[in-house]
Structure prediction request, 190 residues.
Amino acid sequence: MGRVRKALAGPWVIAVVVVAVGGVGFGLYWFQPWKLWQDQTVQEALPGVAQTSAPPAEASSDETTAQPSPATGPQTLAGGELISHEHETSGRVKLVRLADGSHVVRLENLDTSNGPDLRVWLTDAPVKRGQAGWRVFDDGKYVSLGKLKGNKGSQNYALPRDVDPASYRSVSIWCDRFDVSFGAAELDRV
Prediction:
């Protein structure tokens, strides 16, 4: 009788161990908890803005450094401050028209948690504070501008040419895996 129990217990134990290991592996893949302790900083310049250095000492005070004029350089059309949703999030969002007529969403001084499958979304949803705002951005019209390049820093996300930026009113740092906003900003027209 003891041998029969031992023989039956062996396959069950192995099956339970295999299922447990598989479950832990899936959980680690799905949640990626290590990202909570990994920061990725990205510092991108705004396209079309020449990086200038201080003028040489012999230059007269009448000379100016090369700066784009408002007519030919990037123009901020709208912007707003990021508010926290699922994760503590801060920074500023700008909708910018570049000199060539294209548009970018610019995140400045972004500071949020890292997470699995984070995206930058341009949406038509209003920004709501607290838990009421966590899941509203996929209810209406939205455009994914791509994966979040870094959870800290300043970065640019190009809008597709066929997207009319005037028909969108907010930007969300969206976790596509869990369908939740980490943070969002209302785009107030300038």
User: Anything to note?
Assistant: The first strand starts at residue 41 and ends at 43. The radius of gyration is 24 Å. Residues 32 and 116 are 6 Å apart (CA to CA). The chain has a mean pLDDT of 83.
